[in-house]
Amino acid sequence: MCDRELEAEIYRLRFYETRRGTSPARDFLDSLAERVRAKAAVWLGLLQERGPDLRRPYADVVEGAIRELRVSHGRIEVRLLYFVDGKDIVLTHGFVKKTRRVPAGEVEKALRCLDAWIAGKGGALP
User: Fold this and answer.
1) Pairing outcome for strands 66-73 and 76-85
2) pLDDT of 6-40, one tens digit each?
3) pTM value?
4) Domains of the chain
């Protein structure tokens, strides 16, 4: 493979920003303990390399276009929700998972971010 082909396979990680300019995913990552944040950074690197092809145990589909990055550290289960738009992987927010399923409220937050992202682009995801 030539360098240009390798470049084309890399996805861009984007942090969704609210109208107020805050980034819930970035704020969540910043709030994590250093070891958990370091592991999340490795998983984010895998996500950047493999994009929507990254599967369990690292990532999974939650609902429709919403996916989760699954970071486990000891007894802590961290989830970062995201969606894919072409070569952009848009991280919406994160949370510490305490139940077996992703809570509906967390999925709804990610779906609102997706809707706002699409509206801002004036169209739909490819």
Assistant:
1) antiparallel
2) 445 799 999 999 989 999 999 999 999 999 999 99
3) 0.90
4) 3-121 (3.30.2310.20)
